[in-house]
């Protein structure tokens, strides 16, 4: 069957949304850089610093459900713009914080930028036919590369302007992005057809979240996104602790791990459209289970071999991210915001929780490889649960995964 044509409005919506999400993701991770200077200024403990850096990740994940619901009801053009403006205001006010409590409150506001993912998924999916949504959402997800942009750009801004000036510069860019998005974008086809008045009650928006498949998709995303983010954060420490890498070299390896992992998400979307998300996820979880098993074995793997296996793991995680979100508009076309928000929230929480788990396991077992043992359990559980669900499946949409 021939693919439905994609309108110029769809291409513009995808381009604008991907650009806006990249900026949002850069803002969302700003504490990974400016937090270093704040830690020195306030003489923070490691625990206090960890909470400060993790707060935007936590809050940005928690707001995804409500932002997704509002997107379903009011449209992504409005909600995306307001989300960016709110985060821009919080980021600007951050530059005036002086006490640790004030920094935590500011981080809470900055975290709103991370909720933009759920908004963009719901907005972009409405412009594309079902056989193009995997590719479109995969391209949108490339905005994850914003975290790498922050790692490269924020240090220079901080050296030139101080951490306060860097925060204000980020706030200005985000505010200008919000204005440009509003002026250049269009309402999605659903909002354009029905107007701004929602057709369903607010409570009805949450009804699909009781479906067990949403929990299963959330577990998938907890691994492919949450574990990916956790590894990006943990990898420099691992390389220093196990192989004695210099900080700069370990940081470069971590950045090199993050960038391809974001870009290959677009390829994962295209593969999901062509071969089906189920096939892509089978490969993702099978390879991830094998890779984490190899990495979890407590023997001395050479640094080059370790990095090679980790990069293979990161590649399949990136491909799997797009495959997970290929499911959502297929099964929940009227609730992409709510379901996508829930799945995105659980994935984001993985990025917050798993580094804490990795540290705890290292303390308890004394083994650096224990973090990969935890990831092996999660990957194996995803593979087993998906396979059992596929075997039980009856009446699934033709050509689509369970």
TrEMBL record:
**Transmembrane intervals:** 12-36, 48-67, 79-97, 103-124, 136-161, 167-184, 217-235, 247-267, 279-299, 305-324, 336-361, 367-390
A GO molecular-function annotation: nitrate transmembrane transporter activity
Any one GO CC term of this protein is: membrane
Which keywords fit this entry according to its UniProt record? Membrane, Nitrate assimilation, Transmembrane, Transmembrane helix
Report the domain of life of the source organism.
Bacteria
Q: Does the keyword Translocase apply?
A: no
Record-annotated Major facilitator superfamily (MFS) profile domain positions: 12-394
Query: What does the UniProt entry say about where the protein is found?
Result: Membrane
Membrane topology, from the record: Multi-pass membrane protein
**What's a single GO BP term from this record?**
nitrate assimilation
Family designation: Belongs to the major facilitator superfamily. Nitrate/nitrite porter (TC 2.A.1.8) family.
Q: This chain belongs to which protein, by name? A: MFS transporter
Q: Which species does the entry assign this protein to?
A: Pararhodobacter aggregans
